[in-house]
Amino acid sequence: MVLAKGLRPAQVVSVILAVRLLSVFLVQTWYVPDEYWQTLEVAHKHAFGYGALTWEWQKGIRNYLYPSIVAVLYTILKFTRLDYPDAVVFLPRILQAIISTAADYSFYKWSGKRKWALFLILTSWFWFYTSSRTLLQTLETALVSIALSIFPFKAGKLGYYEQENNNWVWLACLSVFVRPTSAPIWVVLGAYNITTTNQGRLKLILKSYLPIVLISGGALVALDSYIYGRLIVTPWEFFKFNVLQNISSFYGEHPWHWYITLGLPAVLGTNVIPLLWAAINIVRRPKENKIGLLLLIAAALHVAVHSFIPHKEFRFVLPLLPILLYLAQDVIVPWSRKATKWQLYLTALVILVGNLLPSLYFGLIHQSGTLKVMPLLREAIPNNRSSILFMMPCHSTPLYSHLHTNVTARYLHCDPVPQNTYESEAFYHNPQRWWASEYSTRQTPTLIVLFDVLRGRVESLLKGYELLHELPHTQYPKGEVGEKVLVYKKIESKTKVQADEIVQ
To answer: Which of 310, 185, 306, 183 is nearest to 245 (CA)?
Structure first.
């Protein structure tokens, strides 16, 4: 970390911002539908008056804070007439990159402005991959990181006499409303704060926790209730649908140990080694690592709670990343003081290369077709009377947030319907029957988007269409997701073309 010596705060912020903005333009791949369908599509509908809302917004399990922020950005673009498609696509990501920059600088300050902490957070492949995405988990992680940087940890005896900053409670409340999955972290840290406070426990609860929770929670409940048109508490609706009714299992299930054996190792990459080293040190000498033990317990509870939920995803442990990287740098720093220069450079090189390779592959190559197809569709739309059919698994692409054209767009639905067949499944059972039912009384679509694995099954439906684009998507096709994304365009009859030319 010799190269990082003597960096001033403005320089650190500039370096972080440069890396986060770089991710906006380097990360050009599809990750999960929620990046678009739980933020951008919602915001686009509210700002521009057209768009699509998934079942989560009809049931009221999502909070409107983040989409509302993006909607304000869209509205500014709309009234200044600067709502060019590229601006609509990239400005929300730039906004999130700025928020992530604030989170990263907060993480750097929390670590005591250690250079290794800065290095780990900037080189983390999964954070580079997600830090500029408009995922709810990305905002949640940023809020967690900022809150941790001002949390009143008690480091040594003097810590019990220092003035406590309770503003972390505001951020904790926001993070839980944005995405309730961070709640286990705050349960542990809140209990620790109450038992170690120097303000008096009852005073802390009545004069800090309760007013902050009521004001912030009340404001967010008011926001949601106003937009939904009924009194609603979205974290409770989220818990009811995803946990009590286990609706999340509709989208896949994994074994209980998945986060330990696959989820966390994949997210951490090479950083799993210093993390294991840190965990061993904490378990061996807990009295000497009280803050480390507290963070380890918070992380363990988070993993344990989410392990009991059958549906699991890598992004669900993203809020743990600041905690786990803090623990990792906490063992690297004392080791680095005794290490030789070649050991330091070798360690930095291994961490950098180990994170650079997955960053480039997942950011530029893996699952790129469903994003690259959107500007091509925009260019291929002849007029606003055109229509597009996405003949692929539900929410495989963004929609109006990337088209930014008010045309009819049809996609296969996959709303959870227990004991019934959802539309996407019914389509893949019999595409011809679905097509006959859908287009028996209406005009067939102008453009069709599909994965190459489906082409052989729908060749009869593609008669009268010509192949317009063939885009690489993934080297690891699975199920209904193929290696390539195909775009077909309806062949216009000569008579129709001549008639259109006369009208023009």
So the answer is: 310
The position carrying tokens 């050991």 is 343
State the average pLDDT over residues 406-434.
86
pLDDT of residue 402: 96
| Confidence tier at 161 by pLDDT (50, 70, 90) | low
Q: What is the pTM of this model?
A: 0.93
Whole-number percent of the chain with pLDDT over 90: 84
For residues 468 and 487, is the Cβ–Cβ distance under 8 A?
Answer: yes
DSSP annotation of 8 reads -
Token pair recorded at residue 441: 């009384």
Helix intervals (H) in 179-289: 183-196, 201-204, 210-228, 234-239, 258, 264-268, 272-284
Residues 253 and 180: their CA atoms lie apart, in Å, by 20
Torsion of CA 93, 95, 96, 98, to 10 degrees: 130
DSSP 360-380: HIIIIITT-HHHHHHHHHHHH
Nearest to 105 by CA among 173, 250, 195, 7: 7
- Radius of gyration, CA atoms only, the chain: 25
CA triple 388-391-392, angle to 5 deg? 125
- Residue 384 token pair: 């606003």
Q: Examine the pLDDT at 498 and tell me if it is beyond 70.
A: no
